[in-house]
Amino acid sequence: MKIIESNLLRRIIFLCSIFCILPLAGCSSDSSSFSYNATVAEGRAAANDALKNTGASSISLAFIDGKGLVWAETFGYADKASKTLPTVDIMYPICSMSKMVATIAAMKLVDQKLVSLNAPLADYIPAFSMLSPEYTQITIKMLLNHSSGFPGVDYRNAATYSPLPFSYSAQVLETLKTQRLKHSPGYLSVYCNEGFTLVDQLVPAVTGKSYVQFVQDEILTPLGMNHSRFPLDYFPDGSFAKRHDGNTPLPQLFVNDFASGGLYSTPTDMAKIAMMLIGGGKLGDVRILSEASVAAMGVDQTVATFNPVKSNEWSYGLGWDTVRQPGLDAVWVIGWLKTGDYQGLGTVIAVAPAEKLAVIVMGASGTFSSGSATIVAERILLKALAEKGRIAAMPARLTPTPRAEKTPTDEFLNSVSGYYARNDIFMRVQRQGSFLNIAYHDTSTNGWEDMMPGLKLRDDDRFSSDADPSQSVSFKTADGRQYLVIRSLGGYSHYQDDLIYGQQVAAGGALPVAWSSRVGKKWVVTNDHPESFKWDLPLMQLYAVDNLLFAMTGGLQMVNPFFSDARASMMLMIPQKFGKELDDVVIETRAGKEWIRFGSYLYRPEETIPALSNGMVSIGAEGLAEWRSLDATGITKTVTITPSVAGGRWKIYDSTFKQIERGEGTKAVMLSGGKYYFLFHNTANVNST
């Protein structure tokens, strides 16, 4: 009986989602005259496949053509614990899809002649500065096309479970004053949050309005996007889809980088953005952007920058991840696409502007990601193109088979062998006779694990294995650097695309003594929000392999130890994706001890952590979290923690800095059999017996 009732309720909600959605603002209430029956069937199958394959708790989507909303539907549960079914008005954190809204806001400023795309950012924000003098060359356009040269993402305070009481974008502006550029402005385009983050500072600088208010007044309200908002406070329960850990709902996520990733919205609301862009900046009688601004957003920005191997997936427009979406490009259709990801969230907006079609997909939980959403979007768009006769049929998925072999020269094999690095992985290309083997470095074993073994040169001058011919490898030399390029299946698997995966690296000599003496030591973070994911991995170490130096904070980022004894610098120059999120390692001396500044994170050396003693643990004037150690080897200790404020927060880690408990308020904990570390976010009284 419960199953029948559940299915009936789902059916009612589905019928409401099809027939009861209000028309898009400014559009006729008439739906498309074309039925799209096969397209809807394909979309449902794709969404259900994604639920099954990823374990997503819910998926919501919308499909439009030039006449308005064709179809919107939800799948799964908005809240698995209460078995709450989602509706089309349930909001999702749209993550980096928010960059499209920031881009529209910036282009609105251009249309209003408040800024010029090619003018320096510093002309509008006098407080903006960096250590690299070339920062004055960064233009508004470079913020939007990922070519500014800003270093790594400032993850500190970026995501919390409660409202942030200060401006995250102002924090980023201050952090940039202490940082260098990783490349000359405009030299290459590589994914960069900070460019969009600074739109949050640009808007009030030239309008006097906050970014949030400007977006509301100039974009959301005119378009009738009544289910889109920034997380300035807690949302009513049931108004947003929850992420889940298994079957347990997680609390509301606050992405505090509003311009780069903070907006909550729905597919039907974002469909209005898509309709406006398809309409050349206009939706009904409402004009948001000029036709020239929409056209400028759709221009491939990578053709005029350093980009030695074309990747359709990363052919940046202004705001767009790509203006040559490879799934559509494979059938000779122009496609614009923007994705969004955060832990357990994936979103995508895909637009075929000339065909006047668009799909928006949002999902939560499990392994659902923007990649999952993109597959759903591609299947819907491809089926719509086929159903309308624009293409002959849905393209078939590729099933590559091994190509004919050819014999590589010794000179070539030797030239491509060696070490390669990207932003978070260290790799080795090793010659094995006439084959190549690619492995990645595993820090847990201090050894190498196979990544792509048994690669043979083929008649297309690419290396691939017999076991997996769907992936192939080539090498490209440009501007004095050699790159590893991987070609693989993408999206719906009806196409292959190239991606620059790593840069060849070699040691410049023996590690300087100042840096070799730091290898293997441990540092722990002190200055993030109590709710940050950073506390799950608080440890930082310096790591070395064959005189190559790495910052290890989960992944491996290679740094140059020859810059100075106090600063090991960023050194990779990789366009597209894997040159992102790089930082210098900076040594700061405090009370005679070496602390590390990595991005805006401040790490203290483990050796300076005091032993836990009875009495008050006080948070100092800087507000840094306080660490204490406890040796319970061979004994049992009972530690009572009494924060000085209600709900004061603390965490406990084992000897490897694996978090074993977190809490709020007073609690007594029993520990035995080893060394432990206590972390205090608030002043607390401690009693150990």
* Low-pLDDT regions: 1-30
Strand content: 25-35%
N-to-C span: 57 Å
Strand order of the largest sheet: 18-17-16-15-14-21-20-19
CATH superfamily of the largest domain: DD-peptidase/beta-lactamase superfamily
Q: Please tell me the total number of domains.
A: 4
CATH-derived architecture of the largest domain: 3-Layer(aba) Sandwich
Shape: globular
Structure annotation, total helices:
15
Number of strands: 37
> Residue share in helices?
10-25%
Mean pLDDT across residues: 94
CATH topology call of the largest domain: Beta-lactamase
Secondary structural class: alpha+beta
CATH class of the largest domain: Alpha Beta
Alpha-carbon Rg, integer:
26 Å
Major sheet characteristics: 8 strands, antiparallel
What does this structure look like?
The chain folds into four domains: 93-387, DD-peptidase/beta-lactamase superfamily (Beta-lactamase, 3-Layer(aba) Sandwich), CATH 3.40.710.10; 410-505; 513-605, no CATH class; 609-688, Jelly Rolls (Sandwich), CATH 2.60.120. It is built from 15 helices and 37 strands. It is globular, with a radius of gyration of 26 Å. With 689 residues, the chain is of the alpha+beta class. α2 (37-54) packs antiparallel against α13, α3 (98-111) packs parallel to α7 and α3 packs across α8. β14 (418-421) and β15 (426-432) form a beta hairpin. The strands form nine sheets. An eight-stranded antiparallel beta sheet has the order 18-17-16-15-14-21-20-19. An eight-stranded antiparallel beta barrel has the order 22-23-24-25-26-27-28-29.
